[in-house]
Amino acid sequence: MTSADHPQPQAAPTPDGPGSSMPTSVNSPSGKKLAAKAGTEDKPAAQLAQTQAAQIWREFRKRKLAVFAALLMVLEILIAVFAPFIANDRPLAFRGFNRFEFQALIRAADSLVILAKSNQSEGKPNKDLRKLLRSADENLAAAHREIDGATESGGAFQ
What we know:
Elements: H1 29-42, H2 45-49, H3 52-62, H4 64-81, H5 83-86, H6 100-122, H7 127-153
């Protein structure tokens, strides 16, 4: 048998070899040059120093609609947090004929309280107070009938 019949195994390619397919080590002179080239060609120096969060924020700011949506969400969260301070003292639901009746009801309640206090201090019977309470009850009952009639028929208020 000759050496042509049995081929000799070839030596494993070295990482620093000229035609090797294996990556070169950074410790070799050619590896240092490649590593230096790869680091500077792909990204500018300012971009290399940025953190991942800074890069994500920069990409996010490029999308104007996303920034607008984020600002809108922040505004809604602030409104939700400060809602108790923003809200007024009006009731959540009021049954009445129209929106002007609410102011009239407040004036009537205030006048009833003032009248009751003045009558108690003078020792007079509350005949006027009873008349006012009776008329307020009649108005409230009429408002309930009007609202209930409109909701049962499915129509809007008139």
